[in-house]
Amino acid sequence: MKNKIIILMRDEKYLDSLEKFVTSKVSDCDVFATGDTKDLSKLDLSKYALVIVSSLLKEGVWLKALPIIRKVQNFILLALKDGPELNEAIARKYGATGFLKLPINSEKLLFMINDILDNVRNGANIPKIITKNFVEKITAFFKNMDNLNYYQLFEVSLESSKEEIKKSYIKLARTYHPDKFRNVPSEISKMAYEITKRVNEAYSVLSHPNRRLIFDRMLKENPTMARFDFRMKVAYNHNPEDTIQNPQARRFALLAKKAINSGDHKSALTQLKMAATMEKDNRYLEQMIEEAKKALEG
Amino acid sequence: MTTKYVLGIDLGTSTTTVSIVKDGLAQVIPILGEEEEKIMPSVVSFLNEGKNVLVGKRAKDNRHNDPVNTIYSIKRIIGRKYSDPETLKYANKFPYKVVGGKNDSVEIDIYGKRITPQVISSLVLKKAKKAAADYLGFEVNDAVITVPANYNEPQRRATQEAGRLAGLNVLRIINEPTAAALAYGFGNNLNEKVAVFDFGGGTFDITILEVRDNFFEVLSTDGDSFLGGDDIDAALVQFMIVDIETNFTVEMQINSEMQSILLSEAERIKISLSTENKIRVLIKGLIPNNDGENQDYERTIDRELFKEIISPIIRRAFNICTNAIENAHMGVEELDAVVLVGGSTKIPYVQERVIEFFKQQPFYGIETVLVISMGASILGNTLVNAFDEEAPVLMDVIPQSLGVGTVGDYVEILVEKNEPLPIERTSVFTNAMDNQDTVKIAIFQGEGQSKIESHLMGELFLNDLRKAQRGELKIEVKFEIDTNGVLNASAVDLETGRVQKLSLNIHGLE
Fold first, then answer.
1. Is B198 known to be catalytic?
2. pTM, entire model
3. CB pair distance less than 8 Å for B138 and A203
4. What is the pLDDT of residues B366-400, one digit of tens each?
5. Which residue of A108, A113, A172, A180 is the best one to mutate when testing the B interface, meaning the one whose CB has the most B CBs within 10 A?
6. Is B251 labeled as catalytic in the residue annotation?
7. Does the N-terminal or the C-terminal CB of chain B have fewer CB atoms within 10 Å?
8. Distance between CA atoms of B69 and B143, rounded to whole angstroms?
9. CATH superfamily assigned to domain B229-308
10. Is B10 among the catalytic positions?
């Protein structure tokens, strides 16, 4: 397939020499050179890989022609030294793939053109993961995330273990991390960014034993609640038995811990069960009972 | 297929290296005329009233000739406020002139001209960029630059600015230990908990990472940006001065030239003792004598004595390790690997203490001074070339808590230390007076919950407020920390739903 290039420039002499230069130096390409934007309307612009535009195409004309120019996959903007104030940042803002100041260093221009064409040939400027399916998936996820609490966001249950939560976190973070969306349309990278912020927020609650405990309690009182109130300052729990409110139950839990340490899982299980009758719905106790049962079986 | 290239730059306190991924491999870019033809001292020397500038080894060599106009260790003070006690501490040590500028910023006085630390760093980066262009045959503008994990917001911002000034498009600022972990190839199928012990020229960092399926999750990070090889050199200089004063009963007046000589000698002693058991020190004509004829300073320093001199410094590093492991909510025995990074880990005594503390043999396979830039280039390469599912993903954390000042001495913490990035928190503010035009919100970074314990980072101003009675306005401010660890803020008037104008002023940056 031939790569189609447009050169858009007012100065005829320059236009000519640039056309010759590109045709001779860039292999396998088709060049269309013109000084008039009107000529562009005759072309099927989506078939063109690149347009090289001079900023001094009459004052401001290139800006007006921008919507047309953008129909081409890539454009390189050439700024005249004495032309309108332009810099790389502004050019990028307008969506330029490349920016060069005149007089152009021909090697630089050549490198830029080849780089762009290579990308077009390899489809490299459209990341593999941005399929139509993916765009639908990320859009749906983004639109729905405000309606979900952290458990629903992670697709885990209130009973899920730390490990299950972590697995789910890694999966989401891997899918939506903003670093993966560097060269994609900004609406997608923006969604990815917002999603990652929310996923991190959820993880900072669900991976934090005390925050999770408080979140669970609030969720019980108000099932429609979605997010944690970070004005509440909660210390990370180093001693999980501190989550047990009933002092008797806590005493039994500590005894059970001692028994486990000395390898006596049977007594531990009895003590844990005692604790669990005094304090209902404590995740730590439930977990300990499960573990003690497993230890006895094993 | 042409790949896009991204420079990975380790802009270190004492040296800078630059790497690139080429043909699928991370490789260090040669910089001609520098140490080992690739390690460039982060030193800038101004000649002829500032008309000519030397960067790298030649600048470092010029340190003795012109200590006042030769800038080194700028990373110690970049992004800091002039009034920061740490800045003042270093300003007194440096032979060059550190002065205060606008907005409590730090500036260097060179022949009466004021230059910011960002400009100094940009000169180093420019040379790195040029070396890459010479090597590759074309220019590369995209870069990933590394910073110490414990760098705060203004320091990261200042580093970004230095990159911009050097004409670089800074794709990411990443933490040095994370870069090192990437370079070591952790994450290739392995599920591991790794500690990166990064003891460089100027800073000490410890980072605990969990790596599984190429997902790099930072569990905790801690460090001291004023703890490094420079401090070991300074301790040696201090030792030599005391040694001279006690043995020769003289009072040493140290001028900047003598200081340069002593520092060079200290560095030589330190490096030699990594391979030798003892070293002979000889500085000709150092000690003043009444008859005007100066005496030589001569003595032997062995590893035992060196250990004694530096052990208070090394101890500080391990106290920080204890904190970091605690903040990762784990025990030292759960660590699968320990990686050593940075020149100061070449010291045998440091390695001894690492084995003792972590109870295992550390990794130091790849050149410790090169891993960071290599890791940065690996990340840079994935940022622009690989969009597949397998590409590594880094989840870094905020190294210091961020909060806002409230009434009295209290700081309300918004984002706690070690929360994953990017992250956002919102807070609602109101007006304290009728028809108040502007609300000023003080932003703090640091550990404490009181203003004295924290570091006043800057202010956020809510400008052109809607006219309202006091307490009537409800402005919701969204504080967002991006993947570079840099703060962005936005605000909404909750009643009208309109975007509220605001401006952010970071102290120490103009």
1. yes
2. 0.75
3. no
4. 677 789 999 999 999 888 876 566 678 888 899 88
5. A180
6. no
7. N
8. 29
9. ATPase, substrate binding domain, subdomain 4 (3.90.640.10)
10. yes
